[in-house]
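Retro notes, item 3 of 5
We never archived the inputs for the flavin-adenine dinucleotide complex last cycle. Fixing that now. Sequence and ligand:
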Amino acid sequence: MSLKCLEEIQNIQSWISRKTSVVCVNVIQETPDVKTFQFKAIEPQLFHFKPGQFIGIQLEIDGEKHNRSYTIASSPTRPHLLELTIKKDTKGTVSPWLHKNIVKGSQLEVRGPAGRFNCLDIESDKVLLISAGSGITPMMSMARFWCDQSSDKNIRFLNWARGVQDIIFRRELALMDHNHHNFDLEVICTMPGLSENWLGRRGRINTTSLADMVPDLKERTVFCCGPEGFMEQVKGCLQALEFDMANYHDESFDPGGKKKAKIASEKEQLEEELATNKAAIGPFNLTFNKTGKTVVVEKEEVLLERIEKEGIAIESACRAGNCGACQVKKLSGKTITANEAGLFGERKEQGYILTCTTHLESDVTLEL
Ligand SMILES: Cc1cc2nc3c(=O)[nH]c(=O)nc-3n(C[C@H](O)[C@H](O)[C@H](O)COP(=O)(O)OP(=O)(O)OC[C@H]3O[C@@H](n4cnc5c(N)ncnc54)[C@H](O)[C@@H]3O)c2cc1C
Ligand code: FES
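Structure as it came back at the time:
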């Protein structure tokens, strides 16, 4: 490497921006329906984040805006690239669009990073990573992070895939398993094809196989990610084995049909209420407590978008009420919210609101 090149690398800024323009530099076909998209920041930046965290993207497809979250599958130990590994949901909107349209040279805007499901906020010397399907992405970021540092962390990694051809990161996982004495991988196929010649474990998770694969289960902190049904089964097995669930952490990628339908109907209800609630017809005064500035806001305006329009720094990622990144304390006034799944613990009682899914119903003052 030339001295000039080294100097250029040393002068690159760290990722401080909350909204970053990135360009795709490579696309890897991992399995028939999963691709990894590698991005570089257009303004050179080093991607610093906590392994397991995700970014948010907003896309306009056929004139409609869509917000989605994607875990950063890469590791902050390799900070020049941001990698997203995305499974194509043929019935979905955004993932098929990304698979079709994002090629080398495509540009995107990402927001974040965000998320509490990460291995820096949750610490442990002995971990059990459990994943299925595209739920492998946060585990991969954590595993790459630990292996890159030759960490002493004791890692047991159980990864479920349907068939052999569906195993995401198969070669890299095998190499990590080979190279790191404290990294112990087991891939399990639920339905390997006859011609796939699979010699490893088969079948869905159950208490007997889990206890067999992880004899020191109770000493470990569990990170779990996969389809809702899979995570329910994992929890059921752990409870049956009297695992201390305080040491269990999971992340859901998909609220699932029922929850999605509930969110959609709550959104519809909100729109109906906004259209018919004559008492709260607006416009309203929105006051920012720190500067004392007051602006006039229409009730149809999404609070987050208005805050951004005023040039006030605010974090956001999923922009759908799921991650909690955009939370702000409301000091007074009435608001209405479509989805506040991302508001954890006592934040709601403390007066916090998720601005990405909130509209004003009266004059409001924010702590901002
Ligand atoms: C924190 C987080 C991290 C994530 N990380 C990743 C990742 O690393 N890799 C990855 O591949 N994905 C990840 N996801 C999932 C990702 O955000 C998208 O949900 C996924 O790509 C599907 O989006 P889509 O637009 O293609 O599908 P959508 O259009 O959202 O549809 C998904 C499915 O839901 C059904 N559906 C849609 N609306 C309804 C409704 N109203 N009622 C019932 N069913 C409905 C559709 O038929 C379809 O099968 C993550 C999600 C979260 C929250
Ligand atoms: S940006 Fe994720 S909850 Fe608002």
